[in-house]
Specification:
two-stranded antiparallel ribbon; six-stranded mixed sheet; 55% helix; alpha/beta
């Protein structure tokens, strides 16, 4: 395990959220990255970046922990996040981060129009919206007039780090290439600082130990979650099997009921046929008796003939002649 974690630490780059956080804590790097993301703002200075800062919209609400959080000299708020895995919840995740960040933009007693602007920035190691863009900038707009942007001070920016489109400014592209561990121009001042900062991070024994402890915790957590998912899957499969068993039982009961109904119909049909045969036999016997009497055949001979021909008992013979 220790050897695995050691290699993981050595191989980890900016795409690792822990390394990203420690690198972005550097004031100059964080300022330059923000300048490259938002060149039109002409940011001159920022507050010392803070990582893992926690905000809660309400006491009983889910808390949000920002990777890198800072503000500039104009009071604009910046949350910078490294998103490693795609949990398919990026839109609502951004919404909550923006809500938490925006709450900091409103001072008590301050008019709404004086609220500071808020920027939530995500570097994603996947295409967040599966639309093939390298950068996604999100604003509110009017549905009936899509080109009409609502200037509410909130801006969401997402970068698709693996993208090779090169649709961004070359300086911004250099930073994305560093995250993706692609070949980068070594003369770029930011690239030089990033490499130096990463070397400092990798030499920090405290951070290395913290990284390894966190990695062990994350692996344990992932294993627990995997077991929970496996247990939930087994429960779902068991429920499906139970439902299938119930369905098969109901189907069997239905088939048995249909079989019983068919058997009852056949028994009734047989009874009806037997009754018909009996009635026909009675008619034939009576006709035979009448015919033989008409031929003046004596009753003893008639009885004997009828008894042998139709295999009747003495009582049945007696009943025929009693009529």
């Amino acid at each position: 395990m220790n050897e695995f974690l050691r290699k993981k630490w050595e191989m980890a780059g900016l795409a690792d959220d822990y390394i990203f956080n420690k690198v972005m804590l550097d004031y100059d790097i964080c300022l330059e990255v923000l300048r490259r993301i938002l060149p039109d703002l002409h940011i001159k200075k920022i507050k010392l970046p803070n990582n893992q800062q926690e905000f809660a919209v309400a006491p009983d609400a889910k808390a949000v922990r920002f990777d890198i959080y800072t503000t500039d000299e104009q009071g604009n708020h910046y949350d910078i996040e490294m998103q490693v895995a795609d949990h398919h919840n990026i839109a609502k995740r951004i919404r909550y981060y923006q809500t938490a960040s925006s709450m900091e933009a409103y001072d008590k007693g301050q008019p709404y129009e004086q609220a500071d602007d808020s920027y939530v920035i995500f570097f994603c190691n996947f295409d967040p919206f599966q639309l093939g863009q390298q950068r996604y900038v999100l604003h509110k707009h009017i549905d009936e007039i899509p080109e009409q942007i609502i200037e509410d001070g909130q801006t969401d920016i997402l970068f698709n780090v693996p993208s090779l489109r090169h649709d961004v400014d070359p300086k911004m592209q250099a930073f994305l290439d560093m995250i993706a561990q692609r070949k980068v121009e070594a003369t770029d001042p930011l690239v030089v600082k990033l490499k130096e900062r990463m070397a400092i991070v990798k030499r920090n024994r405290k951070w290395r130990s913290e990284y390894m402890r966190r990695s062990v915790y994350e692996m344990d957590q992932e294993m627990r979650e995997k077991k929970i998912r496996e247990g939930e899957r087994k429960i779902r499969d068991g429920k499906l099997e139970l439902l299938e068993g119930k369905r098969e039982l109901l189907e069997s009961k239905r088939e048995i009921k249909e079989g019983q109904d068919r058997l009852k119909e056949k028994e009734q049909l047989i009874q009806e046929r037997e009754q018909k045969l009996h009635e026909n036999q009675q008619t034939i016997i009576k006709t035979s008796i009448v015919t033989m009497k008409a031929l003046n055949i004596d009753e003893t001979t008639i009885r004997k003939e009828i008894k042998e021909k139709f295999n009747l008992s003495d009582k049945e013979i007696k009943d025929y002649f009693a009529e």
